[in-house]
Design goal:
Length: about 250
């Protein structure tokens, strides 16, 4: 890793400039009054900074472990299905084709009834975003995106989409391909020299069966649940509430 990059980007919400950062809080007086959010902060609890603090939860995998240990800590299901996916001819790669990723993800998001994304959102995040794809029989069957902070050494899962909601595909095959892509992503980022693979959140104490299933799936890769802090300036917090009230939560 030659260039050290932290995750910080600007976006537009209701014509306001909103600033979001991940993993690192660097105090500047104007942050208190502008539209700023800092996500997934460690060692931040009870800091005397005006604003709103709330716990956030995720699952992290230590990439500084030997590869053999990481593999051994995968569940038996993950190890078996990724081997099968490899023998089935699945190939994985990283690419910067934002349009291809947006098209694939949004098709999945519409079918799943979740928020879509846009090229503007991905472009706003700049070079901190990496996108991976898994192909089988010449077709993309799964795609992931990640936020990469080379300064702190963390990569966080951002988007995930597959063809599993398309009836013309074998859902078991799609499941194997998606697991294989995740495993390849993990070792790609380990080889980059990153320290932590963040699975993109953990729904603590949820009663939603779908979220429980996602929690359990992420834990199959041998990570551990961690608690961090999200910090919001007062103005950001109010705008976030307004966005939720207007059912525009996908923008914040």
């Amino acid at each position: 890793m030659n260039e050290k990059l932290m995750v910080r980007y600007q976006k537009k919400v209701f014509f306001f400039n909103v600033y979001e950062s991940w993993f690192t809080y660097k105090y500047q007086f104007w942050n208190i009054f502008s539209l700023n959010a800092f996500f997934h902060l460690k060692d931040f609890k009870n800091r005397k900074v005006p604003g709103i603090q709330e716990n956030s939860y995720t699952i992290e995998l230590n990439l500084e472990q030997d590869k053999e240990i990481i593999l051994a800590n995968f569940s038996k299901q993950i190890r078996q299905q990724t081997k099968i996916a490899e023998t089935e001819g699945t190939t994985c790669y990283f690419h910067t084709d934002v349009d291809k990723f947006i098209s694939f993800f949004n098709e999945f998001a519409i079918k799943k009834n979740i928020f879509t994304t846009s090229k503007d959102i991905i472009v706003e995040m700049g070079s901190t975003v990496k996108m991976s794809f898994a192909i089988n029989n010449g077709e993309i069957l799964a795609a992931h995106s990640y936020l990469v902070d080379t300064e702190v050494g963390i990569v966080r899962h951002l988007h995930s989409a597959t063809k599993r909601l398309d009836d013309q595909y074998d859902r078991n095959l799609i499941g194997r391909v998606n697991k294989y892509l995740t495993v390849n992503d993990i070792f790609y980022f380990k080889d980059m020299g990153l320290k932590i693979f963040d699975f993109g959140g953990y729904a603590k104490d949820t009663t939603d069966n779908s979220l429980k299933g996602i929690n359990n799936y992420k834990l199959l890769f041998g990570g551990t649940i961690v608690t961090c802090i999200n910090y919001y300036s007062y103005n950001y917090w109010l705008l976030k509430k307004l966005s939720k009230l207007l059912k525009l939560s996908g923008k914040m």
